[in-house]
Amino acid sequence: MQQVIVIGGGVVGLTSAWWLLEAGFGVTVVERAPQVASGASYGNGGQLSYRYVSPLADAGVPLKAIAWLFQEHGPLRFKPELDLRQWRWLASFLGQCTTAANRRTTAKLLELGELSRTGMQQLEAIVSPDDFAWRDAGKLVVYRSPAVFEQAAGKATAGAIWSGDECAAREPALGAARSQLAGGIYNRGEAVADCHAFCVALAERVRAHPRFAGFVQAEVTRIAAAGGRVAGLDTSIGTIGGDAFVLAAGIESRNLARHAGIALPLYPLKGYSLTAPIRPGDTAPGISVTDFERKVLYARIGDKLRVAAMVDMVGENLALNPKRIGSLTRQVRETMPHAADYDRISAWAGLRPATPNSAPLIGATALSNLWLNVGHGPLGFTFAAGTARVLADLMRGKAPPFALDMLAPGR
Fold first, then answer.
1. Domain ranges of the chain
2. Residue ranges in the chain whose pLDDT is less than 50
3. Using an 8 Å Cβ cutoff, are 309 and 271 in contact?
């Protein structure tokens, strides 16, 4: 039985471990934190948005980004770095900012989204939805600008088109913002859940699998390569060997791959989230809501409201920016003033490992026994089950369920 070492204990690494175990591999998971899902999987937006997968790169985005930089409460912040990886990523991102590129990538991500939906349904047979507050809430994208709403409604190929009045009537949490809403697009079948709780529950199922060799808490410092393959992992507790290795360590994958002579087109897009308890009598959203122009996501997860927003391009800096937290809190209080107890907010920041075109990298590398499952950006929870299934198929020599095209590492 081939022994696979999975580097990373977040949602992507854990789903990869499960599908590899089910495919007949022996698996060990190496995670540097004491607990699984302590990084980007911990406090993310909690939305499983299988249809809302349009890449960040699109025609017109560069001009919008310039405008956002000058907005006090804008969704984007940029800090230039003395790091060529930032500038290479930006150059590649700008090259993807065309209508044609956006359509091609969106079509592929929709395929991956549908595969991920069926993958999550399979996982629900082993991880109870009650364990991670899963709800089939549906997703409502609301628009403030009549022109932007009209354009979005004209392009919509699925979903119900609601007026501003209908948005507030069907989702009472939006009542205070009614006068600012031009309309919205609602899709059934989109879900919300607690990603961290899902990872904790899945880790227990992984731990109990007969082919699982165990979790190892250690920091991988180097992927040692020799003769065109990985010889082992240098870690904080010594060398770890195996037959094959899967890199699923979020943004840290970029540094580890570089040591092995592989340049990954990843950049950390820093995002923030707020979590506030919902009290009896609060008007929390029952539907998952995205405020399109402000790029703010709202999701009721169990008895808490999760709000996620913003993209800070500031390198690998995890510090909470008080101004950004304050700005987000003000926007939340304005949009949904009665949705939760905002006096008891907890704030979080995470680094989302993004590729320039928002498509993850899945598959083989130049090293014969090193595989990738990285680059999911803000859709790690959404795509984790699908990319794990694709990875397991590839590693056992089985054709993937659809052409990988831009998902392949050598694209």
1. 1-69+82-134+191-265+353-411
2. none
3. yes
